[in-house]
Amino acid sequence: DPILSSTGGIISSDVSGSIQAQSNLSGVPDLLLTFNDASLIDDCSFHPCVRYTRFDRDRVVSFVPPDGPFELMRYRVSRNGGDQQQSNNLAVGNMPLQVIP
User: Three-class SS of residue 56?
Assistant: First the structure.
């Protein structure tokens, strides 16, 4: 949700999203999700399987997934006009995480 000035510049932008997952792994796999730039994430909430203290300390999502589909996390990324480059990146869809199959 961007807010634009009368000249078309970005005053602020806000992106909300979630990471949906489905696990069909056997055993007790210990998974780790890293971010390109975790400092961009302003607000997040996690599935109970996530080790929050690890995220708080290292800014990575460490978890043992439950079987089947689940929502791993919800997040919000927002920027004010003071940081124009990051606001522009959010406006064109660059997010602070990367999914590699």
Answer: helix
